[in-house]
Amino acid sequence: MTDQTHDRLLIIDFGSQVTQLIARRLRELNVYCEIHPYQNVTEAFLREMQPRAVILSGGPDSVTRPGSPRAPEALFTMGLPILGICYGQQVMMQQLGGLVQGGKISGGGGTAEFGRAFVTPTTALPLLDGWFEAGDEQVWMSHGDHVSKLAPGFEVYGTSPNAPYAITADTTRNFYAVQFHPEVHHTPKGAKLYENFVRLAGFAGDWTMGAYREKMIEAIRDQVGDRKVICALSGGVDSSVAAILIHEAIGDNLTCVFVDHGLLRKNEAEEVVGMFRDNYNLKLIHADESDLFLGELDGVSDPETKRKIIGRLFIDVFQKYADQVEGAEFLAQGTLYPDVIESVSFSGGPSVTIKSHHNVGGLPEKMGLKLVEPLRELFKDEVRALGRELGLPPSFIGRHPFPGPGLAIRCPGEITRPKLEILREADAVYIDQIRKHGLYDDIWQAFVAILPVRTVGVMGDGRTYDYACALRAVTSVDGMTADYYPFTHDFLGETATRIINEVPGINRVTYDITSKPPGTIEWE
Fold first, then answer.
1. How far apart are CA 171 and CA 294, in angstroms?
2. Most distant CA atoms of the chain, gap in Å
């Protein structure tokens, strides 16, 4: 609870994988919000935070199970506007005197609903202004249980084939509840529902990246004082924005360390060092530790093991260079909100871990360094907005994301120096093609993965037995969900021809058309 100057909205997290999307919807409306796991939200917590409104998230549990998650009883007597989403609706009904029937998954035999559904309105409701103008509305359902009896004071405002109480409200108390997920893009007008809710709750919509910049500069100064910070600078948007923001707060007390782990793209090390030494008055150490990283990764094929090795060495390298910066007490990282969500639920909540991120979590106590993570609450698009606020050039702000483990997770199977060189050359050709066709800014992220298989080919009169590679390009808003980019066949054919002709070691090119979910953006 760091912000004290803006009206705050509390999101109580019951473990949904898309709780963070609720926060994104609210950030788009310039509403300051915080996600906290249900087990941390006590009556004392509520009175200290003083939120203007509360949203109860979805979750994987069943309210019919003894001991399942609940909201604090005091929440419903504080006069706050409340919106319950899916499991959040069921919690409201169960705690306020209604009933929830378990579905087949939870052993209750009731109806369940997964995927697209259509809601039919029954009565007008200010929460739904702008909805149902053309009839029934598409929503996204994902529930194994359903409400079978409304709590006293509630009325039904919308139904779906398997959710008779798809939209309910007690307008006297400003309590609203929906069975579907308005935060996902499969509910086309979901953003409008959140807009209506924050309007009904009286939010001013004054939370901006300008406000965040001011807040974080003050917070960094409060945390760091006149002590020194070393920053993990990768040259990507996240770490660079973090570095510029911290530099604005503490000036020469910041030293940036650029770790070259031998897993960067073609010419990237030279470009990063040149850009920051030539254009920004930052202290920068170029730590070329490629032999160390590649030596320990030699023969390793398991993706989680790769990440853990890189994460451990990342810490070791920073300990080494921290010792060279006299008086350094803090390590700054460009950790983002999605990184935190995917590693552990934000603030220790119940969400399921998807994969580990090397730049998330506490540092070993032996380092004696504390973390400074000024972007930890932000999504990627917000980081770019903050970068613009800080005056970074548009060409830099628009750079595609690049993962901390670098090319290690774009090289399934064992990592070798020859394979990395092949991958660098293929990736450079691919990105050059995207830029030449004017597509770079339309794509969220694009890269090549070199596959752990060799295929037979014919080049001239000779037989080849070389690697296959996969092209990946996705569109996204925040990296939490993504669709593949619809290249033309002409573009793909031209690109494949260039890669095969210009990159020795590759004789077959494929295009990955998997969305997220079910896949992830990166291959490992």
1. 62
2. 81
Per-residue pLDDT of the chain (524 residues; tens, 9 = 90+): 444 567 899 999 998 878 888 988 998 899 988 888 999 999 999 999 999 999 999 988 888 889 899 999 999 999 999 999 999 999 999 999 999 887 654 455 556 667 788 999 999 999 999 998 878 888 888 766 788 899 999 999 999 887 889 999 999 999 999 999 999 878 888 999 999 999 999 998 888 899 889 989 999 999 999 999 998 888 788 889 999 999 999 999 999 989 899 999 999 888 888 877 777 778 899 999 999 999 999 889 998 999 999 988 988 887 788 788 888 888 898 888 767 655 544 444 333 333 344 444 445 455 677 889 999 888 888 899 999 999 888 877 888 888 889 999 999 999 999 999 999 999 999 999 999 999 999 999 999 999 999 998 877 667 788 999 999 999 987 777 899 999 999 999 999 999 999 999 999 999 999 999 889 999 98
Domains (range + CATH), the chain: 8-201 (3.40.50.880), 209-397 (3.40.50.620), 416-511 (3.30.300.10)
**Is 181 part of the annotated catalytic residue set?**
yes
d(C-alpha 390, C-alpha 378), whole Å: 15
| Residue 306 in tokens | 């790769």
Catalytic residue among 181, 261, 357, 358: 181
What is the C-alpha separation between 264 and 245, in angstroms, rounded? 24
Q: Choosing from 6, 36, 86, 411, which is the catalytic residue?
A: 86
Among the listed residues 403, 234, 246, the one whose alpha carbon sits nearest the alpha carbon of residue 330: 246
Output phi, psi for 427, to 5 deg. -65, -40
Structure tokens of 413?
């199977």
**Per annotation, catalytic residue among 183, 377, 382, 425:** 183
- DSSP-derived 3-state class of residue 511: strand
Q: Would you state the torsion angle of the CA atoms of residues 122, 192, 100, 113, taken in this order, to the nearest 10 degrees?
A: 90
- Our answer to whether residue 183 is catalytic in this structure is yes
| Residue found under tokens 């949904």 | 16
Shortest CA distance to 68 belongs to which of 53, 88, 50? 88
Q: Do 50 and 5 contact (CB within 8 A), yes or no? A: no
Residues 265, 429 contacting (CB under 8 angstroms): no
